[in-house]
Design a protein that fits this description.
It is built from eight helices and seven strands. It has a seven-stranded mixed sheet with strand order 1-7-6-2-5-3-4, sandwiched between helices. The model has no long low-confidence stretch (mean pLDDT 88). It has one domain: Glycerol-3-phosphate (1)-acyltransferase (3-Layer(aba) Sandwich), CATH 3.40.1130. By secondary structure, it is α/β, with parallel strands linked by helices.
Length: 220
């Protein structure tokens, strides 16, 4: 049960509680925790299948600040995100300079940021085209990018209603680091790095979840 060692007491308590609950209520299979850097700026980049994704990503042993959609503000889920994950709320599809400033501040302080590169939840289960936000922040701050794939959680509530423990997988790849030139690159020049990140996530997923990256993974 790896726990973020330098996190506030409440965060560590909630992480331990999550481990207990998820081990009890699901059949959870996690691999690659050894790839998580213990310190330094880090952008955790998972696929986005389900509203519960953040619960599983929160098991990663870092004090994570998470991006969250504005629609969760003022709701119970939003309170949990704000309390446990110091949520940065963003309006989908808009450039939010205040949120960007907070994200940069977290990373420049050596913290970990959770940011799904698809930018929205996949309705089909397959990966959507990645957006350049995580790579932009990594380039500006020198943060490592941690590809993460989670699947099975889209059947979470269905399986619970059938009184079954759903099987959930979370796989973590080795972190990626951008070249120094990325610090001053234009957005167009960052696109290949976004594609590399998305392919790293796609390779962690079963074929049926790879979406728009399925052909590229198949071709090697």
């Amino acid at each position: 049960m790896p726990i973020a060692p330098d996190a506030p007491l409440l965060y560590r308590f909630m992480q331990r509680l999550l481990w207990f609950l998820l081990r009890s209520l699901t059949r959870l299979h996690i691999s690659g925790l050894e790839h998580v850097p213990a310190a330094g700026p880090l952008i955790i980049s998972p696929n986005h299948l389900h509203v519960s994704d953040v619960v599983f990503v929160a098991l990663i042993p870092r004090r994570i600040t998470a991006f969250a959609a504005n629609k969760w503000r003022g709701k119970l889920a939003g309170w949990l995100l704000s309390t446990a994950a110091n949520a940065i709320y963003v309006a989908r599809g808009e450039v939010d300079r205040q949120a960007l400033g907070r994200a940069l501040s977290v990373l420049q302080g050596g913290g970990a940021l959770g940011m799904a590169p698809e930018g929205t939840r996949s309705r089909t289960g397959g990966l959507l085209p990645g957006k350049d936000g995580p790579v932009y922040l990594a380039g500006r701050t020198g943060a490592a990018l941690l590809p993460v794939a989670v699947w099975g959680q889209e059947r979470l509530f269905t399986e619970w209603l059938r009184l079954r423990r759903p099987v959930i997988h979370m796989h973590i790849a080795s972190p990626m680091r951008l070249p120094p030139a990325a610090a001053h690159a234009r957005m167009d020049d960052l696109r290949p790095h976004t594609e590399k990140l998305m392919l790293a996530i796609a390779r962690l997923l079963p074929a049926e979840y790879r979406g728009v990256y399925a052909d590229q993974v198949r071709q090697g």
